[in-house]
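Replying to the earlier thread about multi-chain prediction with a worked example.

Input:
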Amino acid sequence: MSEQIANGAVLVVGGGISGLTAALEAAEVGKDVFLIEKKPSMGGRVAQLNQYFPKLCPPSCGLEINFKRIKDNRKIRMYTMTEVKSVSGSAGSYEVTCVTSPRYVNNNCTGCDACTEVCVEERDDDFNFGMGKTKAIYRPHEMSFPMKYVLDKNACSADTLDKIKAACKYDAIDTDMEAKEFTVNVDSIIWATGWNPYDPTKLDNLKYNESNAIITNMEMERLAAPNGPTAGKILRPGDDKEPESFAFVQCAGSRDENHLEYCSYICCMASMKQITYIRERYPEAPIYVFYIDLRTPGKYEKFREKLMSDPNTHFIKGKVADIIPESDGVTVVAENAVTGEKVQQKVDMAVLATGMEPAIKSQAAGLGLDIDSNGFVVSNPATGMISAGCAKKAADVVTSAQSATAAALKAIQAGK
Amino acid sequence: MKVNPDLDFIKYMKSAGGDTLKKCYQCATCSVVCPLSTDTKPFPRKEMIWAQWGLKEKLVADPDVLLCHQCGDCTAYCPRGAKPGDVLGAIRAYMYTHYGFPSGLAKMVSSSKNLPLTIGLPALIVLVVWFISGGMHLPSSADLGQYGFGHFFGHWDFRWLAKNVFFIDIIMLPAAGLAVFSAYKGVSSMWKAMEKQHNVTAQYRPSVNQFVKEFLWPSVQEIIQHTRFRECKTNINRVKGHLPLVLSFIGLLIVTAYSAFAQDVLGLIYPSLHGPMSLMNPVKILANVSAIAMIVGIGILWANRSAMEAEEGTTATYYDWFLIYEIMAVGVTGLAAELSRLIGIPALAYFFYYLHLVSVLMLFLYMPYTKFAHLVYRTFAMAFEKYRESSFVVKSEE
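Result:
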């Protein structure tokens, strides 16, 4: 049996919780695994969270153990800043062309931080959704893995580049680095390409762009995270005010034919989790949750019951369909479908519970992937094209890890 | 709460363009994006669930159904494609049939299956009256030029009442009378139902004068100014069609009133007032401008509705299109009759005049049952809204 399954390598596309899990599961039974990640560091969306279900752990718990396992496993070859360019071949024998973008920092980097001290230029911090800046040479975030800096060459003047080079004692800066293309031959591909938060600017009635008091749920994660732009204080972007009241706008773009027609599954629990973040910091602040239906699967019912017993947390059945920017905060407008009256609630901060959009959606056709009408990758174990985690369907971390393990199990059989 | 759904009503809703109703999941987006919806009793979310449950008694007593102008903002933002705007249109259609008297006539007009009868009946009435009158011959070009359509139903020498006027009156007056009576009956039933549903008891009754001054006239002003219509976002273009149309109806009302007065009253003293008016006569100018405004207005509404159906997936319904075709027919036949009279082709002129009489008869006779009924029902629903907020009403503590 070992002969039959030992030769087929697996490509895992995406280094988030699903990709990490799938790569490790496949490698730990002896498969050669190529793990590629588009971003400069592993960990995906989970790394951006403050805490995650089921136990409200910080992402370091969970991700770090996986990083350790990857470091120790010689079967896994990991590539960051790398994307799939094309796929050829067929079931059991794929040739995949990958492209690695230049990081301009080589493996000599020790993370000593000498370079950032001499760098004057800054760039928008995409890890924090543009809330805050980093230097043009930066570490993606505090626990980024691999522990290597990244240089945004276009953001730097020639003078700064020279200074950075001079400051690096390890000769780690290589400004001549170019994009590198390489091919891998694998039996199967696990697509663990994850999700992007739905673009809130498409929800024109919610006016995300028109007020600093409107943030998305992922921005809330960053605000609450100790390694985030506010070091874990929940402050209103722009004026750094401590908000005295909050509104959660559920189904912002989800369950909506005009946007994402499916339920994104995680947003109800994400908002409830974020209520606990707020409660830790602002024990009395009124919180209003506007929802169509609350989806709190399984044991999360208990979690909901506990939150609903808080007299300062109000759950209103009715979707927010208009947000009016005010000089200080916003007014969210909904109809309370239980009382039949319109609610106009002025709050200091509104959180849009935006949903999950499959990240691979727009590229799927070019890569020959079978996607459903919503852009999720249809798993096809027979052809060795297997999807996992949020590339497959909207899911939480637990479900993603399960689906990644299942994907690994299918992938190791594909070479038979 | 005990719910007795009316299955026939639900079936009706499906047939009348409300087939998307079942998709609604009560998120209430519609009530918020609706520019006409109020804070204390927003719509159309509640109407959607009433309709899903088949609670027609609640719906036919709900002024909000009539306050809806089908802007389409709700439909545009609806996350489920439930098209609340179309559903409320279908409820209004149901309402007019529900309150229509006699109900047989109301039902006949409401269904496309009866279209041959709906057109055939007025066509036959006018034809039969034409035969009875004995006027049934084509005039010479000279006569047409001199008398216009004044001898369509023939001529007699009884100077106090022209034969033509007599025969037109025996067609149009009963039709208009029935329409007015039916509208009055319908509106008062609706008013009572609304009072009952909304627990409105009069503290003291407004006099007719007070009623008109405080509730009806402000509503009419709002309607003519298109105040609410202009709040619409998605289908704001409809104002461009509806406004000229309303003004043309007012213009033609003035023309008709003047011409009746001039011919039937003043004409008794000054016989020269009989026969077609000069094209330079200010009243005639108003008539022609109105006729063109009518055709242009209804043309714009026609185009808008076609566009709505093509772009936004608004359901095409008999209820909506019947009125568009009917008004277009009135305008086009009227203008065609006038033009062929001016050119001097008697056969063509009489043919179009006949069609014009038929279409005008249809407009009058079917007013309370077709979409045209919004003219009275919406006006009174708006008046009701003002009335229930007024000091005439006992304020109940709900």
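The two ends of chain B are 17 Å apart (CA to CA).

Feel free to reuse this layout for your own posts.
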